[in-house]
Design goal:
This protein is α/β, with parallel strands linked by helices. Helix content is 25%, strand content 19%. It has two domains: 358 residues, Glycosidases (TIM Barrel); 84 residues, Golgi alpha-mannosidase II (Immunoglobulin-like, Sandwich). The chain contains 14 helices and 24 strands. The protein has an eight-stranded parallel β-barrel, surrounded by four helices. It has a six-stranded antiparallel beta sheet with strand order 17-18-19-24-21-22. Bound molecules: 1-deoxynojirimycin (NOJ). Belongs to the glycosyl hydrolase 13 family.
Length: 557
């Protein structure tokens, strides 16, 4: 029988980075494509399979590039189109794919389309944006995404005496996706970057892509699902194995619809970032209650077709906690970010993980091992692998977007004109939080993450969507079995600083003799389960173990 290889996005680790803050190739203080290209050996060594580039286009830079002024070009600080193509080509040669951010909910207010749209009600670009005489009353859709900065999603423009829609900042007017001309232009943009070598896109703000204006100028909700299916079919027609990875911060039921579950064919997004699971994971860690995480994974709908959830611990935004109840959110704030200046818009934390874990390397390692042990494609944010912290003096969400730390010292080689790097964890070990210091240290976080990537790709047990939680009789320990194509790995994670004895029963069918359990994370450590499958495994404070279950002779039934 010929084994089918899983589609590439199911067994690749994704790595999100901003070219501007990653690596400076020409010494001008900004990261750039030549600098990033030089780092491909490192990313390959780490085990990255796909790089997700945050927006790299010309922009007004009022939302770190998510306010684009030209979709067909490269921000000149980052290099040229030629540098971009050279980078994508080299990435491919390293076995690494590249996807880009697709920001189509809005443009910058300085984009020529919007400048033309503002010129008059009869401008040919007027209907490219959403203009109304009076904002609709009430609290329903559309909502203001950054209410502390822009409380209303409507902005009055006295030039033409109308209001335009901006669900995000006032300088990011929403495109009118109900307009076929806008859709056709977006297809040209998408086709352009696919032709230059991208393997797909991370669809920014996917659930927000829904309001347009009808003929009379009234707002009308256009069907976001039909639109995403249209976009996916265009992408696939140009490049059959390109993907759409969506930012869908919604509860599972709603988020799953973006994977095309309604039609059952998986014809919308290829992958969906798992925001509900991420939030439940932080709640479970804060309360040291693994059941919260287990329950959320068990209620997560299985993606149809070749669809996939993408899980993450932190991303480039605030650690958003808006799917939790107020009590739950406060529990996470209290445990991981109690100070006011650590919070963002009342709904999240502008911290990276090491600060939340108070710099405890054991706990940080446990969280990443947990992430890699769960069924989903893992997405890392640059610098997570070395435990980079944040700069709370930087404005808003920029706190977590400090330059990548390659070497010891005050800055990095990238973007010295970006916010200075003063991650909290570096106060204790200022020189340790960089690639150079950790690369050859077997106990470093970098070595740990590299090991997790290698094992999670190497062991087929991690390849499927299955997840089998096991009883442990230890309240703060999570035990689960990953099973795929006849291979079994028992994963154990201690959420507490108190050691635990996890008593588990593996239902593998009666075996002839004891079952060998070999710890993949701690070479040399091994356990034995009884022929019945019963085993007791000791876990130190915040320890994790991935125990590979030996194949054994089974009793004939
Ligand atoms: C989501 C992005 O992750 C965020 O950084 C950005 O501000 C908004 N979308 C608007 O594009």
């Amino acid at each position: 029988m010929v084994m089918q290889r899983p589609p590439w996005w199911k067994n690749s680790v994704f790595y999100c980075l901003n070219v501007k803050t990653f690596s400076d190739g020409n010494g001008d203080g900004w990261g750039d494509f030549p600098g990033l290209t030089q780092r491909l050996d490192y990313l390959k060594w780490l085990g990255v399979g796909c790089i997700w580039l945050m927006p790299f286009h010309p922009s007004e830079d009022r939302d770190d590039g998510y306010d684009i002024t030209d979709y067909y070009a490269v921000d000149e600080r980052l290099g040229t189109l030629g540098d971009f193509v050279a980078f994508v080509h080299e990435a491919r040669a390293h076995g690494i794919r590249v996807i880009g951010d697709l920001v189509i909910n809005h443009t910058s207010a300085r984009h020529p389309w919007f400048l033309r749209s503002r010129e008059g009600r009869d401008s040919p670009y007027r209907s490219w944006y959403v203009w109304v005489d009076e904002p609709p009353p009430g609290d329903g859709e559309p909502i203001a995404v950054f209410p502390h900065d822009d409380p209303s999603p409507w902005r009055y423009d006295d030039r033409t005496d109308q209001y335009y829609l901006h669900q995000f900042y006032r300088h990011q007017p929403d495109l009118n996706l109900a307009n076929p001309e806008v859709r056709a232009e977006i297809e040209r943009v998408v086709g352009f970057w696919l032709q230059l070598g991208l393997s797909g896109f991370r669809v920014d703000a996917a659930p927000h892509l829904m309001l347009g204006t009808g003929r009379g100028g009234q707002t009308s909700a256009c069907d976001v699902h039909a639109y995403i299916a249209e976009l996916r079919s265009f992408v696939t027609s140009r490049c059959p194995d390109a993907i759409l990875l969506g930012e869908v911060n919604r509860p599972y039921k709603e988020a799953a619809r973006f994977l095309g579950r309604q039609s059952g064919t998986g014809d919308e997004l290829t992958m969906c970032l798992d925001f509900e699971g991420m939030q439940q994971m932080h709640l479970a860690l804060a309360r040291r209650d693994p059941r919260l995480l287990t329950e959320s994974i068990l209620r997560r709908p299985v993606p149809p077709g070749t669809g996939r959830w993408a899980s993450f611990v932190r991303n480039h935004d605030e650690l958003v906690l808006d799917l939790l109840s107020e009590d739950e959110r406060n529990a996470v704030f209290q445990a991981f970010g109690p100070d006011e200046n650590m919070k963002y818009q009342g709904r999240g934390l502008r911290l990276r993980l090491p600060t939340m874990m108070r710099g405890d390397l054991r706990r940080i390692k446990m969280v990443y091992s947990l992430l890699f042990s769960l069924p989903a494609t893992v997405v890392l944010l640059y610098g997570e692998e070395i435990g980079m912290g944040e700069d709370l003096e930087a404005r808003g969400r920029l706190s977590v977007r400090c330059p990548m730390r390659w070497e010891p010292g005050s800055g990095s080689d990238a973007a010295s004109s970006a916010p200075p790097v003063k991650p909290v964890t570096q106060e204790r070990d200022p020189d340790g939080v960089c690639v150079q210091a950790q690369r050859d240290d077997p106990d470093s976080l970098l070595s740990w993450i590299r090991l997790l990537i290698r094992l999670s790709r190497e062991y087929t047990a991690f390849g499927g969507d299955d997840f089998l939680p096991l009883e442990t009789a230890a309240a703060h320990a999570l035990a689960h079995l990953r099973q795929h194509e006849g291979q079994n790995v028992l994963c154990l994670h201690n959420f507490s600083k108190e050691p635990a004895e996890a008593a588990v029963r593996l239902e593998l069918g009666e075996r002839e003799g004891p079952i060998e359990l070999t710890d993949l994370l701690h070479p040399g450590d091994s356990y034995q389960a009884e022929p019945s499958g019963d085993a007791v495994v000791r876990l130190d404070a915040y320890q994790s173990r991935w125990l590979s279950v030996a194949e054994g002779e089974r009793h004939l039934q």
